[in-house]
Specification:
The protein is α/β, with parallel strands linked by helices. Helix content is 42%, strand content 15%. The chain has a 5-stranded mixed β-sheet with strand order 3-2-1-4-5.
Amino acid sequence: MDIYRHDESFRQEGFQWIAGIDEAGRGPIAGPVVAAAVVLPPDTRIEGLRDSKKVPEKERQRLFYEILCHASDIGVGISDPEIIDRVNILGATRLAMEAAVRDLLRQPDLLLIDAVTLPNLPIKQVSTFKGESKSAAIAAASIVAKFTRDSLMLHYHNLYPEYGFDRHKGYCTKEHIESIRIHGPCPLHRKSFQKVMSLMLPF
């Protein structure tokens, strides 16, 4: 079943306003986790739409703007590093996803979510492992979340250029680890993550 037929199968069950939800940024040691909720019209077909992790950066930008042009609704939610450190990365991911749903102009009647459930939202949900490879709406959400987060990390690079956020986007590369070792963590670093804790300079 292709990603469009997957979503259409739920419309045939009577769900009309279907939001796909995905996140970007659970794995990095710096920066926020960003979630997106995307509602696609029934007959929309976006060439090349797929899991954002399988899309080169330049193509991801094209897909992002095509989604903006075609989507019926888009919501974005962000959990910053302080929230991640306070409630852990899974809790922060759920908060970002819930915020993305609340950011929509209209409440969906079905949420298609990649591998997470949102118990605080009183909306019918279907959680699917690797959902971004099975659902067009989740794939679209993965593109929006990834593009938004990467754009934020490019902005943060201007604030903290010594860490190279424009290159690794906060992921745990050798370059990134070395920059923390030299400069210590900045406010964007997730200080509850073991990799960062082990490199924190004594004050």
